Amino acid sequence: MAGARCRTLYPFSGERHGQGLRFAAGELLTLLQVPDGGWWEGEKDDGLRGWFPASYVQLLELHPSPSLDMGNMDFPNGFLLPLKLLSIDTNWVCSDSTEPDITGFVV
């Protein structure tokens, strides 16, 4: 689960924990460690790291996506692949984003 993202549900001061991560409700964190025991280590977008109660966050759902390894670019029929197009030529589509609200390419 390391690398997963979560949203904070409640503010946490981190004061009572020597390596606590202070945050407000509604912030996004990246999980670094999720050991048993109810305390997780995470990182804020500004690079600050620390520990916090697992019950103070909600894991964000990851939506399954097709395999994007170079050997397998098969998509199910009708799959909407979100892209931000930078350029198109007859042999290649160039994109720097997968933001679903920009444009889509139906395979």
Characterization of the model:
This protein is an all-beta fold. It has 2 domains: 5-59, SH3 Domains (SH3 type barrels); 73-107, no CATH class. It contains no helices and 9 strands. The protein has strands at residues 5-8, 28-33, 39-44, 49-53, 57-59, 80-83, 85-88, 93-95, 103-106. Strands 4-3-2-1-5 form a 5-stranded antiparallel sheet, with no helix packed on it. A two-stranded antiparallel sheet has the order 6-9. β2 and β3 (39-44) form a beta hairpin. The chain is elongated, with a radius of gyration of 19 Å. The two termini are 30 Å apart. Mean pLDDT is 76; it is low at 100-107.
Per-chain topology:
Blueprint: E1 5-8, E2 28-33, E3 39-44, E4 49-53, E5 57-59, E6 80-83, E7 85-88, E8 93-95, E9 103-106
In short:
The chain is mainly β.
Structural class: mainly beta
CATH first level of the largest domain: which class?
A: Mainly Beta
Supply the CATH superfamily name of the largest domain: SH3 Domains
- Tell me the domain tally: 2
Please describe the structure with a list of short key phrases separated by commas or semicolons.
107 residues; mainly beta; SH3 type barrels; 5-stranded antiparallel beta sheet; two-stranded antiparallel ribbon; elongated
